[in-house]
Design a protein that fits this description.
Elements: H1 2-13, H2 22-25, H3 29-35, H4 58-66, H5 84-97
Helix pairs in contact: 1-3
């Protein structure tokens, strides 16, 4: 779970906000190093179809983001559940900690596309 969250957060920090970007990023050895993977090429992955890809694909990350904690145990396809509020708080806390003194105002520049 830690690796999945790390992959998603580092992807966001690098400007890859869309999950489908991770279908290419899953092959990225540098991102795998950031995430903390030891097998940077993915050659030792258990499932043959995952070999050569050290990181998760967009479908796995999608299950992480859309899983509902209460139904994750019984849901066949979305067994991963995240605490979205805790992740939101973490991202805000990490942003604020990156400043010596938290900014008084934060401008959100949203792109309509």
């Amino acid at each position: 779970m830690r690796d999945l969250v790390a992959q998603r957060v580092y992807g966001l920090a690098l400007g890859y906000e869309d999950l489908n970007d991770h279908d290419d990023l899953r092959k990225d050895s540098t991102l795998a190093l950031l995430v903390g993977k030891r097998d940077l090429t993915g050659e030792r992955r258990v499932r043959e179809q995952d070999r050569g890809n050290p990181l998760a694909a967009s479908s796995t990350l999608n299950r992480l983001e859309l899983g509902i904690p209460k139904s994750a145990i019984s849901d066949r396809y979305k067994r991963i559940a995240a605490d979205n509020e805790a992740m939101d708080r973490l991202l805000v806390d990490l942003f604020l900690e990156s400043y010596r003194k938290p900014p008084r105002k934060i401008w959100l520049d949203l792109d309509a596309t």
